[in-house]
Structures are given as C-alpha cells and as structure tokens.
Design goal:
By secondary structure, this protein is mainly alpha-helical. It has a single domain, classed as Helix Hairpins (Orthogonal Bundle). It contains five helices and two strands; from the N terminus they run ααβαβαα. Strands 1-2 form a two-stranded antiparallel ribbon. Helix 2 runs antiparallel to helix 4. The radius of gyration is 18 Å and the shape is globular. The model has no long low-confidence stretch (mean pLDDT about 90).
C-alpha cells in the first residue's frame, strides 16, 4: 500500500473544498475543528473515563540531562484511549487536519515544507526546542 503524502492530501483537500473557500470561513472552521478535538479528549476523561488527568507542577531543573528530564517530566495523562474514544479523537484530528490543509492551500503554504522546516528546527534546537 502506498502511503499518502501530506502534499497529496493537501491537493485532495483543494479539490474537495468548495463551500468554505473564503479565508475567514476556513479560519473559523479550523478553530471550530480544534475545539472539537479538545472536546473529544475531554469527553474521554469526563464521560468515558478511559484516560485521567493527574496534573501537578513539573519538577524540572535547568541542570537536568535530557535523560533525567525524560524520566522525570510526565504527560499528566494516565490510562489509554479506548477504541471508541480513539476513533472519536482520530476523527476530530482528521477534520482539523483537513481545515489546516485548506488554510495552507488558501495562503499557498506547503505543509510538507512546514513539517520539513519544523523538523530541521527540532534537530537543531533539540531538547531546548519547546522550552
């Protein structure tokens, strides 16, 4: 099976998107789809209970090694998405990706290039990329 590239997906979105071609429509749909992603994760916690959030201050110290940080810092998530919640979250992420691709198309932004540039930045900055 050939894997679909981000460029191919972006081209497919361009062919399919007829109703919401306006930048303002796409921006609002992208924001709405992001809220739906958040809601599906929240429902996994509050309605299903397959995952839990146990959040507290992260014990991070500037002199930590990368390995110490990986062991010490957590995600605050306990458990794993059940099959139903995984399907719901995945579906909402797919819709969000659709509108991100539409936004890229309208603004002539190649998402493969964005991913490539972000990967280079991650490689260059490494551990301190998101600090």
């Amino acid at each position: 099976m050939n894997s679909l590239t981000l460029k191919q997906f972006q081209d497919q979105v361009s062919e399919l998107l007829l109703r919401h071609r306006s930048l303002l429509d796409v921006l609002s749909k992208f924001q709405q789809s992001n809220a739906a992603v958040n809601r599906s994760v929240i429902k996994s916690i509050t309605e299903c209970g397959c995952i839990e959030v146990n959040a507290a201050k992260q014990a991070y110290y500037p002199d930590m090694t990368m390995e110490e940080a990986r062991v010490t810092l957590g995600t605050h998530v306990e458990g794993h998405l059940c099959e139903n919640c995984m399907e719901a979250v995945s579906s909402e992420l797919g819709t969000n990706l659709f509108y991100m691709s539409a936004l890229g198309n309208i603004l002539d932004v190649n998402l493969e290039k964005v991913v490539e540039n972000e990967s280079k930045k991650c490689s260059t900055l490494g551990f301190f990329n998101m600090s």
